[in-house]
Structures are given as C-alpha cells and as structure tokens.
Amino acid sequence: MGGEPEILNMEQVAELLDVSVRTVQRHIAANKGDFPGRQIGGKWVFDRRQIIEWVRGEWQPGGWRRAQAELMEKEARRWGADLPETLIDLQRQAVERAAEREKSR
C-alpha cells in the first residue's frame, strides 16, 4: 500500500470512499456496529483494510474476536503451552454470543 496509513480518521475514510464526511457519519449512525470503526474519545478511527472489506461486502462485525480465538489456539500449539481450557472456552463462547447477537439484529 505504499505509505498509505493503516489507521484512518473520518476525513480520510470519506476521501477513500469518495463521499462526504457527513455520509460517513450517517453510515455510522444508521449501521450501529455494522460499519467498521471505533470511537476513541470524541474521534472515530478506522482500519483501512476493514473499510475496503466493508465496501466489498466481505467485512464481518466481530471477525476480530474469531481471529483472536484462533490466534490463541495457534500460539498455544506453537509454544506447546497449556492455555487454560477455560480461557479458550470463554473466548469461544464470547465469539458465539457475539455472532448470535449479530444474527438477531
């Protein structure tokens, strides 16, 4: 991506999508949790990759939770470490609950 920032602000997302900042704000308000971004303090920040996935229809809310659970299991295997099963089970249950909440929306 040749020097492009990975974390974008509202104006950069609007520029990337070739829309106004107000349009981005409307998408955030209308799609509660279904638009990739996070509010930190009073400002919104976005991951460039997730915005591109969202445009392509590939972005899934909560996908980072599944990735986190997979990473924990991968690292446990790689290091031969015994992560407490309860920790992995709790993470897996959290992923399943988040997926169920997304389905019920």
Please give the structural blueprint.
Elements: E1 7-8, H1 10-17, H2 21-30, E2 38-40, E3 43-47, H3 48-56, H4 63-79, H5 85-104
Antiparallel strand pairs: 1-3, 2-3
Helix pairs in contact: 1-2, 4-5
What report would you give on this structure?
The chain is mainly α and 105 residues long. The chain has two domains: 7-56, Arc Repressor Mutant, subunit A; 63-100, no CATH class. Helices cover 61% and strands 10% of the residues. The chain contains five helices and three strands, in the order βααββααα. It has helices at 10-17, 21-30, 48-56, 63-79, 85-104; strands at residues 7-8, 38-40, 43-47. A three-stranded antiparallel beta sheet has the order 1-3-2. Strand 2 and strand 3 form a beta hairpin.
Largest sheet: 3 strands, antiparallel
Number of distinct beta strands: 3
* Rg, nearest Å: 17 Å
Average pLDDT level: 78
What global shape is seen? elongated
According to CATH, the fold-level topology of the largest domain is Arc Repressor Mutant, subunit A
Strand order of the largest sheet: 1-3-2
CATH class of the largest domain: Mainly Alpha
The helix content is 55-70%
Separation of the first and last Cα atoms: 34 Å
Run of helices and strands? EHHEEHHH
* CATH 2nd-level architecture of the largest domain: Orthogonal Bundle
Number of domains: 2
What's the number of helices?
5
Structural class, please? mainly alpha
Q: Provide the low-confidence segments as ranges.
A: none
Determine the strand fraction and express it as a percent band.
5-15%
